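Q: Hi! First time asking for a complex rather than a single chain. Here are the components, and I think there are two in total. Is that enough to go on?
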Amino acid sequence: MADTTLDLTLDAAELTARLVDFPSESGNEKPLADAVEAALRALPHLTVDRYGNNVVARTNLGRAERVILAGHIDTVPIAGNVPSRLDEDGVLWGCGTCDMKSGVAVQLRIAATVPAPNRDLTFVFYDNEEVAAHLNGLKHVAEAHPDWLAGDFAILLEPTDGQVEGGCQGTLRVLLKTKGERAHSARAWMGSNAIHAAAPILAKLAAYEPRTPVVDGLRFHEGLNAVRIEGGVATNVIPDACTVVVNFRYAPDRSEAEAEDFVRDFFADCDIDEFIVDDHTGGARPGLTHPAAAAFLAAVGGEARPKFGWTDVARFSALGVPAVNYGPGAPLLAHKVDERVRASEIPEAEERLRAWLTS
Amino acid sequence: MADTTLDLTLDAAELTARLVDFPSESGNEKPLADAVEAALRALPHLTVDRYGNNVVARTNLGRAERVILAGHIDTVPIAGNVPSRLDEDGVLWGCGTCDMKSGVAVQLRIAATVPAPNRDLTFVFYDNEEVAAHLNGLKHVAEAHPDWLAGDFAILLEPTDGQVEGGCQGTLRVLLKTKGERAHSARAWMGSNAIHAAAPILAKLAAYEPRTPVVDGLRFHEGLNAVRIEGGVATNVIPDACTVVVNFRYAPDRSEAEAEDFVRDFFADCDIDEFIVDDHTGGARPGLTHPAAAAFLAAVGGEARPKFGWTDVARFSALGVPAVNYGPGAPLLAHKVDERVRASEIPEAEERLRAWLTS
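A: Yes, that's all I need. Here is the structure of the assembled complex.
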């Protein structure tokens, strides 16, 4: 790599191309983190902190509100799609164009060009978002330096087609185990059938009616589903065990404890032998009723949509900071070999954020 | 092997020991089949036929009834338990002592010592009973020479503790497949859940009440059970397929077609996408109301029991010959390394059969 500096006077699309040409696959973010840190330290209106390959920069203007702009600097593995290429139709191709170096470019441009925002700003650049959750840099910062992430409202600049996607639903996975007693299937009455014992569980799931509550202005949509079922010993044996794996996706007006209580109550009369919580991450409120968020929504326009899947906004929510996703690029193109972004979307997103932060 | 002849003047227990010392694991029955054939051909009152390593010998006295005595000559693999050993308590140890060279010894003794039975006799010695069904020698004889197996009543000399076990239940295995449509579990309403679609199947199974009909004097006990269930793609995906494997064990008063109809009707309202018959073998009536069988039961004493599991008697039943299991040895000792038989049981079984066939 010839040039390891980042020129923040480039426009957001050019800066995106520069970032794409600066490989930073998960686990190899250090050179890019160094460059981001150096570029930010050159800006006198920002205080810069670093933890591992995570960089946090803040204004300290004593404003009434503080807004966080966050993005991950890693990408999925490069698949012959670096360096970037701008085609004649104005489309920028390459690994990370969409997910999410265009969003990172917007963060850097705002950091460089808005020295006196109407709200205090915190810029978070973190590593290892595309790999196992325990490696996630935002998680590490939240655990080691939660004060660095203090704020009233957070925006994750993930690709959302330039629409606001608010909050996220929680996800709880439980294993429901039923018990029986083995016997030869020719003498079934000598045993008891654990698969038959799972009948009430499936009956309840089939009859489940999802709740669709409005939370901070967005309508969420819950779901309770068997995602796996497994039972059986041999084709001539009455099975002594059956496991139903259930996934509960729940709206962010429930706490984790409330979600777990709901599922336990829901299956309370099903004669379950073991109820095992296998995985659980809480949701995130969109916080769109907060004044900063409402002003943001008015500034960027469009109609906010709820985010049904789990995303890193939940980490902010866990710290008490409502959060949304908002960024250039189509989410469906993320992780594709033909990943791309319309170059004009990037300065557009930048302009909308600037308008909100300088009005 | 020094001596490849069989001396049918030995008593039944000694002959059993001799047969055990004559290894005949499944697939390697030829030397023993040769010895059995040679010993039977030396008996002038019998007509002997051979097909592969299966030997069939018959009297042709023009009696009003014909009775078949059948046994397999193969054993499970020897596990250091050959040659045989008679201990000081009169127990004969070794591979095949129980399953079923003691029964074969009884067949051979009757063949040698009852030249003028009150019913015509057919002796069947067959190979490959302990391995895959398609290798079974009785099946091969039934297909190639069904006339060799003609008769009014058949006794399989499998170990039954010297009790008559009548007939056997049929066994039908079906795969019931439900269909759904995949979706991310965070947006479950975009798909449809194939595991939930299996709820009515399990509900019907859980509510099933078995029939316990009396057939030819024996009370059978049906069973309809899920023996396996499988569904699921990933823990965040609504599953598009689920399979319930159901095993129907049915009394021998149902034909195979009737059994299949019953199961189809039973699940008719369950919205099953595919109903696949995976395996099906019919049952066998015990035929204990037949005069020859009734006389047999009176002669051997005790109370006949129904056989719930599937056995080779079903092959006779398919040819229109009612059949029972009756032989020395404890069925629970079959296939064990410490397989054994009380030596005195063997001539006892022989004497009871002789009494019936000469009264």
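A: Chain B has a mean pLDDT of 94. Let me know if you'd like any chain examined more closely.
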